[in-house]
Amino acid sequence: MFKRFGPPVLVTLLMLATGLAFVVTEHLKLTPSPIIRTRVTKLFSPTCHCNESKARVGFSLRHSERVTLSIIRPGRGEIRRLLSGEDRPPGPLRLIWNGRDNTGRLVPDGNYQVLVRLTRRKIVLPNVIRLDTKAPEITSVSVSSHMISPDGDGNKDLLHISYRVSEGARVLLFVDGKLVETTKYRARKSNMFDWQGTVDGRLSMGWHNLTLKAVDSVGNESAATAPTSVRVRILQLRPGRIHVRAGKVFRLAISTDRKLVRWRFVGRRGLASSRSLALRAPATPGRYRVTVRSGLYKASALIIVS
After folding, report:
1. Hey, is 264 helix, strand or coil?
2. Of 73, 105, 131, which residue sits at a domain end?
3. Which contacts qualify for 200-207: CB closer than 8 Å, 24 or more apart?
4. Do 66 and 148 have their domain in common?
5. Distance CA 188, CA 200 (A)
6. Is the pTM of this model over 0.90?
7. What is the residue range of 180's domain?
8. Residue 289, Cα to own-chain centre: how many angstroms?
9. Residue 236 and which of 53, 156, 160, 293 are 20 to 30 A apart at CA?
């Protein structure tokens, strides 16, 4: 009897089960999701000590639900349970994950997702949370010169700083340990930016140590690069004080990158080479000043005549 009617009955039952499953599936497709307005952090670093140090998980429930919420790693199951079987009313639900597992240990860098278990459904949110604690690296740092003269003559007015960064990051320039410049985020390739010799908007003359750091989009900060010494110089007279006998000739050494400078001394004035200046002291003993101008900038030396 079974041999005669069994196979047709079995086929009929399989067809009914398949049809029922199809109906249930289609019904689920047409049923509005119990979770709406999902917002999940895409990228964060729990070690950055910044605003991006935690991942935020937020959504709204259409109806009252018993909710269990877990952080999972695809293929490895639950990593951290943030909510365990709590009755929640309709409306917003917001939780924070600090990047640690159920034992309190920091989890490895990688991709994670959110598993939500409701009263009658289990939903894995499609949003991927990327945990990244690796700081960017800066390499191949070089400068166009170890001396700049930002006097507007087009000759060494800017310091060109070139570098390579391992990932998209902002690059920070420190002068003697003080932050003075910040770039925008850049692609993973060689880059360059300029420094005009200013600190807090003012020219900072003399020798300085320059270092760079890189900060990626989630706040991971690289170590500082090795210091690079750079001199900012526009116009300098040496020595700054001269003792000379009345009527005698004295010399000043001039340090500037212009070919000619203008000078003024006890009512006289003229042009001189940008390397040195020879002048005669007045016949009357006293204290005088010689002023040298290079473009918009000037320097002076004290001349003591005896």
Report:
1. strand
2. 131
3. 203/150, 203/232, 203/234, 204/175, 204/232, 205/232, 205/233, 205/234, 206/231, 206/232, 206/233, 207/231
4. no
5. 29
6. no
7. 138-232
8. 48
9. 160
